[in-house]
## 1
Amino acid sequence: MQSVPIDLGHVPQGPRAYRARLRRLGPILGLFPPAAMGGAAWFLLRDNTSTVRGVGSFLLAVLAAPGLLMMGVPLSSGSQVWLVGVGTSAALWLLVGVVASRRATRAPAASWRDFWREYLWLAGGVWLGVVGALMAANLILGRALV
């Protein structure tokens, strides 16, 4: 029986440069999933005549921008409230991206798969908190918020 050499390829510019690129680009790439969810929320809201589309749009919007709940967006309005809510949410997602990139590059052979795994665990925690906040607001206010 002959042994077959395994050629996994080489890492361009070495593992240190690859880890540095993960740490540098991770926070920026971490903004893309919430931006896509926000775009989907905006798309669902356009020419909306359905309750299902309205609820889906609201849910996607607050999952993409949790800062909107802190600003009281379902109960208050105004462009400044929306801007502050979206700005704080962008800062939150940048922080999640930074933490995910740091956690993913703890191992010497880090990859983008490691980054996205860490990112999804952290984002899942944020999304669980958003759903919990919506449920708590619904119970405290005593009426259907969604």
Note: The mean pLDDT is 86.
## 2
Amino acid sequence: MVVYMQVDRFSVTMKPDLGAAVRDAAERAGMSVSGWLAQAAEDRLRNELLGAALDAWEAEDGLFGDEELDAAAATLRIG
């Protein structure tokens, strides 16, 4: 049995150097350009939702303190 995935097609334009970088990144990841761009879009949307959630949290409970930010950086292994 063949299962077909429904898709939404886009036509995108970008500067040639960006297009080349996207093609290279997709190749390094072993992905199609479409798949790489779809993953990049998912990542961007997830980051925007996380940012909105953090903004709402801070609006309700106040700004994150240095200890909280340091703990988050340590957990994420950044900084």
Note: The chain has a mean pLDDT of 94.
## 3
Amino acid sequence: MLEEWAYVMPYSTSAARNERLPAYLRIDNGRRCHMALGGLTPQQRLAQLQA
């Protein structure tokens, strides 16, 4: 997360950086495949576990 969200660009304040966190998490959890989850997104894996 640090390299892909917190340090990807310079932010003027910590508050400005924190404003971007929800958008990053939507992408990371909903669209981005994770190798540790067998190529699934965290949302897909959660759906599997809940089924």
Note: The chain has a mean pLDDT of 92.
## 4
Amino acid sequence: MAAKARILIIDDDDDYRASTRALLEGDGYEVVEAAGGPEGIEAVRAQSPDLIVLDIMMESPVEGYTVVQALKFHGQYTDLEQIPILMVSSVKQDPATLFPMAGDMPTIQPDAYMTKPLDIPKFLESVRNMLAD
């Protein structure tokens, strides 16, 4: 039997983490959680997730982008930079719209972006597709 894919949810909203966890576990995934950016980076290092579901606004309005940058750009975590990141936020603008001066700035670009409230079928499809790559 194949191991379950492990998904890390990084979000400061306890209710969102609990509901997303239930949704993902119901779809057969193993789920771990972190309540903020620094805790999330440590969880990535400790748990080696197959996918990260990441909020933007936590302690700061752009904390999620800081996590993306730490994992994918600085080279501190080169063994972790290939983990796909699905950013899910109530912020309606995607990174390119929110930071037009950055252009195609890979340092803050998640692999995919969705807004809350989630379109559950689309969310689960995105998770499956990102894990299949």
Note: The chain has one domain: 6-132.
